[in-house]
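User: Predict Probable queuosine precursor transporter's structure from this.
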Amino acid sequence: MTTNSAEPLIDQADEKSTARYIPVRAGLYPIFVAAFVVVFVISNITASKGVTIGPLVTDGAFFLFPIAYVIGDVLAECYGFKATRVAIWTGFASALGAVIAFYIAIWLPAADFYENQEAFSTVLGLVPQIVAASLAGYAVGQLLNAWVLTKMKNRDASAPLWQRLMGSTVVGEFGDTLVFCLIAATAIGISTLPDLINYVVVGFVWKTAMEAILLPVTYSVVGWVKKREL
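Assistant:
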C-alpha cells in the first residue's frame, strides 16, 4: 500500500524538476521572414531620399524593393498565402516599431559630447507622410502579390512557375508603387502631374524589370527550398 501510493508522488516530483521547452522546428521559413523584415525596415529609411538618375525620378529604396518581392514570391510559392501573410504583417509591425524607436531616440536629450543630433534627426526622423506611404504601399503590394500568386497556383499548379511569378509581380508592384507614390510624392518634392506620372511609371517599370532579371535567381531559390523542405 505504501509503495503504490508513493510512486505517483515520485513521478510528479521528477516532472516538476525537469525544465520543459517548446521545440523549434527546423526550417527555412524563419530565415526568409527575417530577411523580408530587414529589407522592409531598411527601405523605410532609404526611401525618404528623392533620387534623380538622368531623366528618371525615383527614391533611395528603388534597388531594395525588387529583393523584397523575390523573397515574397518564394514565401508565397513555397509556404502559401497564410504563411506569407504572417510574414507581411510581421514586417509591417517591425517597421512601425522601428519608426517609434527612431522618434524616441531623437526625442531623448543628447549628451554634451554628441555633436550629430541634427544629422541624426534628419536621417532617422522619417516624415510621417513617407512612413504612411511606405506602410500602405507595402501592405497593399505584398498582399496582392502573395494572393495573386497563390490563386494562380491553386487554379493550375501545372502552369509554368514564371507565369505565377511575373503575373503576381505585375499586380503587386503596380499596387505598391501607385499607393506609395500617391501618398509620398509631395513629401519628397514632387509637385507636378508629369513628375508624379514619371515617378509611378519609373518605379513600376524598374521593379518589374528587376523581378524579370532576377527570375533565374527566384527559380533557383524556390527549387532549393522545395527540395529541402518537402
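The chain has eight helices and two strands.
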